[in-house]
Amino acid sequence: MLLLPLILISAMVSYYLANKYSNLAYDKGLYRNALALADQVTLEKYDVQINLPEVAKDLLEYDEDDERYFRILGPAGDLVATHTDLPLPRIYPAEDKFLYYNTQLNGKKLRAVVYALPLSPDFSPNTEINKDAKNKSVYVMVGETLIKRTEMANEIILSMLLPQLLIVLLVSALLFFGIRRGLQPLDKLKTDLSLRNINDLSPVDNTKAPIELQPLLNAFNDLLARVGGTIAKQHRFIADAAHQLKTPLAGLKTQAELALREKEPSKITHAVNQINLASGNLSHLVNQLLSLTKAEPDGATFIEINSVDLKHLAQDVTADWITAALQKKIDLGFSCDIQTAMIQGNEVLLRELMNNLIDNAIRYTPKAGNITVGVYREDSALVFYVQDNGIGISSENQSRIFERFYRVLGTQQEGCGLGLTIVQEIAERHHATVSVMSEGESKGTLFQVRFPAI
């Protein structure tokens, strides 16, 4: 497609150059004719005469293709009776100089030259001097039509454009066959992909593809690998979710069957209470599963990222948990000695992260315990932390608490084992890191999330 504008530009340049050089060639011929005509002018002291026999006049006018005109303007007017209708130039050249100009005669375009033949210094005419002549020179003018010039320009243009057109056709043919041959491996690749099973995410064989397409196919294989990883993660998530949902659903069904069989109101009430408790746990599990799906890097294609004040957000979230802390007589406090703590993040996900950490702290801190939530600056990072004096986490369990559905045995607390997994996934989406510190059982726990500051 780029060849067409180049050909157009080349044609315009060729047209300009062809006209330029054809004019240069024939302008020189016009000037020689003007000099030859000037040689026939006789300058005397009191008069200017021209000796132009009829044969010479015919020779000057003769041309196979163009019509030629001449005119000689002396101090007293035209010196030749014929061709006095040849238009005069707008400006005249200096003495012994010449000037080309374009004009028209009888509707025909002409190219003309005017030569200023100087008069002798002692020239003193008896007649009134013609104003156009400016009494210093005899002006010899020769003009001709543009037929030869146009033909020569066309020949030059053709001689320049024809090879270019042939080259364009040759290049186009080479490109057509070259691209067709080069795309043959892609046709085979297209056929292989169209016949591939929808569940086959194995890498595409790119050994026979052109070198230029190797990076594209490598990127495509990388995409297949990432899609395969995402699908595997989804399958694992579905399997884990199905396993975790199976137990509470079975419990609900059992309690419902017991309630239907019982006749005593007290036993029916007990069964309904168990159903209510199990449904609450099931609802919490489902909400945690949904939060985990949203928090995973592949769980949503887009999350809105804004500037978030980590300090103010942590204060709001901590205030939401005051009632739950008071029910267990836990002293829940907030600590921060910096004015603002701005990070880039999604407020909804960050709130979920904080809720899970504070919820865990309240669950695993005994009555009359202490929990401190805070934010502080550490070099180029902003750290959100939750510290409690609860049951603590043993060193062997600290490496596993972020696994899905993993729960420390013997805690006697309700839960589904997804809270810390959600915390880690949200932290990763915000390019943050989560760390846990605990000296052991009954020593309390400190969770820290380090965010890059703005």
Strand runs, count: 14
- The helix/strand series, from N terminus to C terminus, equals HEEHEEEEEHHHHEHHEEHEEHHEE
The parts where pLDDT drops under 50 for at least 5 residues are 127-135
Silhouette: elongated
Helix content: 40-55%
Number of helices: 11
Commentary on this structure:
By secondary structure, this protein is of the alpha+beta class. The protein folds into 3 domains: 3-153; 211-295, Helix Hairpins; 306-452, Histidine kinase-like ATPase, C-terminal domain (Heat Shock Protein 90), CATH 3.30.565.10. The protein has helices at residues 3-38, 54-61, 147-182, 184-195, 214-261, 265-295, 310-320, 322-327, 347-363, 395-398, 419-429; strands at 41-43, 48-50, 68-74, 77-78, 98-105, 108-118, 137-145, 306-309, 331-335, 342-345, 370-378, 381-388, 433-437, 445-452. The strands form 4 sheets. It has a 5-stranded antiparallel sheet, covered by helices on one side. A 5-stranded mixed sheet has the order 9-11-12-14-13. It has a two-stranded antiparallel sheet with strand order 1-2. Strand 1 (41-43) and strand 2 form a beta hairpin. Helix 1 (3-38) runs antiparallel to helix 3.
What is the topological layout?
Layout: H1 3-38, E1 41-43, E2 48-50, H2 54-61, E3 68-74, E4 77-78, E5 98-105, E6 108-118, E7 137-145, H3 147-182, H4 184-195, H5 214-261, H6 265-295, E8 306-309, H7 310-320, H8 322-327, E9 331-335, E10 342-345, H9 347-363, E11 370-378, E12 381-388, H10 395-398, H11 419-429, E13 433-437, E14 445-452
Parallel strand pairs: 9-11
Antiparallel strand pairs: 1-2, 3-4, 3-7, 5-6, 6-7, 8-10, 11-12, 12-14, 13-14
